[in-house]
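User: Please predict the structure of the protein below. I'd like the answer in structure-token form so I can feed it into my own downstream comparison script.

Assistant: Understood. Taking the following sequence of 474 residues as input:
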Amino acid sequence: MAIKDYSEHDGVGLAELVRNKQVSARELLDEAIARTDALDGKLNAVVVRHDDYARQQIDAGLPDGPFTGVPFLLKDLDLLAGTKTTFGASVYKDFVAPHTGTLAQRFLAAGVTIYGKSASPEFGLMPTTESRLHGPTRNPWNLDHSSGGSSGGAAAAVAARILPVAHASDGGGSIRIPASACGVFGLKPTRARNPIGPDRGEGWGGFACGHVVSISVRDSAVMLDALHGPEPSSPYVAPPPERPFAQEVGRDPGKLRIAFTDVSTYGDPIDPEIAAAVRDTARLLEGLGHHVEQHAPKLPADPAAVIATIVACNTGLTVKLAEQALGRAITDRDFEVLTLASAANAGRSSGLDYCAAQLAAFQISRSLADFFATCDVFLSPTLCTLPLKIGELDTMARDLSGISPLLQRYIPGTSLFNMSGQPAMSVPLAWSGSGLPIGMMFAGRFGDEATLLRLASQLEQERPWKNRRPPLCA
């Protein structure tokens, strides 16, 4: 590796080196490529490579942005004109994007050099990244475990210090789950904070959004400044921030009212190490001067049933559009068993079922709004078990009956804040006895990323994670 202190810098720090001419964008790109070549044979985090695209960006002249010259990976669900996007699906293994998505345009305007795509499960459906097309993405803390999903490739690459920040997206926890599994920072922004077009106005009924996973809180905040704001096709917009998000980093959060729970959304006990980590985090917060109280929202509907219906109907549309494009019926040679089963569930659902799921999501959202009248922040575990082992969740199994119970044990609480549209983040504050990261999830009021960023910055100073590196690390 040519740049000895590459891993010491976050993305903003690397951009400063480029701006001050201490290093060139080409040298940073070469470093990221060398690290990818060295580690990805074991990780399988980068499933599409287009190094020459990034080189051409540099040769053409990079825009002056907050991340100018910083190497970057786009998640393999988003479009970048002239490059391959597979969506983790066999039928799209050779698909080349005809245009660039709005979010990717804003990444480019921020100055990053995009040299590849990070792994995702097929269509981002599962909280583990193990597509049939690309194979499993492994956790750099323990290669027998999953890196999480659906932004598993991004989180694994950032955790292994291949690069400091990478694109991620979240429809039911897909930024926060891999951030927790891999020991990095992941913020899911408020609904409509960042654009999702131009091909659609919303994803998964408004549940889905895009942002990044990162080593530092600063990178997440600065990138949010670069990305946020509506586009012409936006069906709705997020409340404008009071000041740039970057200015929240290091700002005193004040004395917050923080509610917490050390059990699952359903009231079930969780992994003892994770429960203990939640209680330890609560004590840490209390020591920082916050008012901390054990208290959790009561939900009027089952979030698992809601998201199952919303996701199935959207998956059914994905399969139908693929059939229309190909002019033939889709088979299990094209899509995984789980994808086809989800689409089949959509076929058995009615418009009334979809509307009922949307209504239940609203009822959950309203109950959370009422709950947040009693607190500023809610702390809960991001994951309720340690990261899954590779193969534990099999999307090609003929019997899929075990998946729903597994998801209810593993990630019962992440989708709540997709339904409500509230910002939520996973912060790497604990590790298990076996050395696996344990993320803490903090949720804030709708539109209030500022409070979360101030709190995350405070926690980053009090219990820094930057120098905690996995065994497989560049």
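That's the full token string. Residues 86 and 93 are 5 Å apart (CA to CA).
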